[in-house]
Structures are given as structure tokens and as C-alpha cells.
Design brief:
Elements: H1 4-7, H2 11-20, H3 24-41, H4 52-61, H5 66-85, H6 101-104, H7 106-109, E1 118-121, H8 122-150, H9 159-184, E2 185-188, E3 203-208, E4 214-220, E5 231-233, H10 237-242, E6 250-255, E7 258-268
Parallel strand pairs: 1-2, 4-5
Antiparallel strand pairs: 3-4, 3-7, 6-7
Helix pairs in contact: 2-3, 3-5, 5-9, 8-9
Length: about 270
């Protein structure tokens, strides 16, 4: 049973206690994930009032790149297991924080088939290589987490052990996926001449025919998409519309509000 004092412990306070008890390195890795969880439900929300379905819904709706998603869930599971141990919650909410099926199966299915040959810019290839090296460096640490969690007899469900195993499965699956991608990659090297037609790796300047608004972006493979940096996929609606076209041509793109017309103003290589 939870006494009245424990039931009134706020999420913000509980998170603070959890983080203070960690080593500096673990605290630095955990803080962002824990703070996001706390902000989601509110710092002043009593942790004892969290319901299982709310925690399950958080796992379904929380957005993050695949390389970070399972790691963040593992951290939050550790926090919820700690809350149960401290008597702040009636049940272990950690068991309800399950990864979305699509991402949970990523590791298991990554080795079933090699990815199709994909064109990558040199920058995109180097980014994949960097992520692969980072994951390989995390693997020994995750194996150590599994060993430490397996030796902890305080948790009935041993949520930290389950989380560490899931994290390792994700890392191994992602490593296999990236290795396969690198093997099948076809590099698009920087172009020394001005291209006449739009292709992967090209920078494109469009002008909205109706409004005159300019749109500037780089065409990349689906593996390199980064909207924040102006990198769009060659398989996206806009990408498909401009690939193979040249300066001066007008292209149409279908969007939810209708059709937009753009004129290709510039095409530049080495994007």
C-alpha cells in the first residue's frame, strides 16, 4: 500500500530524486528522456496518480528517431521501476511502457533481407558510418547493463533487465541494418559540372508560379532525409516531381490543399 505522503510525491520531485541517485555519466544520458516524460504529464502531477493506460499511450505517441527511441524507453522504465520500489506507485508501471510494434520488430527483422541498392551522397554515407561506429561503442556498455540488472534481485518484474535486453536487441538489429546499407550503397560523388537534369545530390531552387515564393532544397536518398537541413527524398512527392527535370521546366505537386505549380530556377551539383 502507498501511504499518503508517498502518494503526494510529484513527478518533478520523483525525477529529481531518481537522477540524483545516478552517477554523473548515467545522469547526463538519462536527463533528457526523464525530463520529456515529466513535461508530458506535468511536473506537479502526483506520480501515484499515473494510470497504466496513460503510460502505455505515452510509449505509442512519443516520437524520436529509431536510434534513440528504445534507449529512451529503457531509461523511463528504470525510473518507473524505481518509483515502484520507493512505494510511490501501487503497481510497476514500467511493464506498460512497451515499444511500438513497428520499432520493436526493427531489430528482429533487420537481418531477414538486405536493403535494395540505394544511392547515397558522400555526406550521407559518412553519417551512416558514424552512427554505426557509435552503436558499436555502445554495445559493450549495454551488455554490462544487462549483467548488472540480472544481479539485482530487488525488482519483481526486473524491468531494468527487460529494458536492457530490448536495448541490446535494437542496437544489434540497427548495426546489421546499417552494415547491409553500406554494403549495397552506391555513392553519388560531387559533380564538377553544372547538371542539366535534377538527380540525387543536386541542390534545387524552385519558384512558386502563383505566389513567387522561393523554395530551396537538396535531393537525397530516403536514408538521408533531413527536412530541418533542407534535404528531401527523391521518392517524396516533390522529389519525384523534379527528378529528371531541368531548369525552366514547370512541375506540379499534389498536396492536401490541391495542386502547386513550381518553376525550376536553378539546379546545382555537390549538394
Amino acid at each position: 500500500m502507498i501511504d499518503s505522503d508517498n502518494k503526494s510525491v510529484k513527478l518533478g520531485e520523483a525525477a529529481g530524486r531518481f537522477l540524483v541517485g545516478q552517477s554523473p555519466g548515467a545522469r547526463a544520458r538519462s536527463q533528457q528522456a526523464i525530463n520529456h516524460f515529466v513535461r508530458w504529464f506535468g511536473r506537479e502531477r502526483s506520480i501515484g496518480q499515473l494510470a497504466a493506460h496513460e503510460v502505455a499511450n505515452y510509449a505509442k505517441r512519443a516520437s524520436s528517431p529509431d536510434s534513440e527511441y528504445l534507449e529512451k524507453l529503457a531509461i523511463i522504465r528504470g525510473f518507473l521501476a524505481y518509483a515502484k520500489k520507493e512505494g510511490w506507485t501501487k503497481t510497476s508501471l514500467a511493464t506498460h511502457l512497451k515499444a511500438r510494434k513497428g520499432r520493436a520488430k526493427l531489430a528482429a527483422g533487420a537481418d531477414r533481407a538486405l536493403p535494395e541498392p540505394v544511392s547515397l551522397t558522400r555526406q550521407g554515407y559518412d553519417q551512416i558510418k558514424q552512427e554505426l561506429e557509435s552503436l558499436r561503442s555502445k554495445r559493450p556498455q549495454t551488455i554490462d547493463e544487462i549483467s548488472r540488472a540480472a544481479a539485482d534481485k530487488d525488482f519483481r518484474e526486473n524491468a531494468p533487465l527487460d529494458a536492457a535486453r530490448e536495448k541490446l536487441a535494437h542496437i544489434d538489429g540497427r548495426i546489421r541494418e546499417l552494415e547491409a546499407t553500406m554494403k549495397s550503397a552506391v555513392l553519388i560523388e560531387g559533380k564538377v559540372t553544372t547538371p542539366t537534369k535534377v538527380g540525387i545530390g543536386d541542390r534545387v531552387l524552385l519558384r512558386d508560379v502563383a505566389s513567387g515564393e522561393k523554395l530551396f532544397f537538396t535531393i537525397v536518398s530516403p536514408k538521408e532525409v533531413n527536412p530541418a537541413r533542407g534535404k528531401i527524398s527523391n521518392s517524396s512527392p516533390l522529389g519525384r516531381a523534379v527528378v529528371g527535370k531541368g531548369c525552366g521546366e514547370v512541375v506540379e505537386v499534389t498536396v492536401p490543399v490541391g495542386r502547386l505549380c513550381y518553376r525550376i530556377e536553378e539546379v546545382g551539383g555537390d549538394g
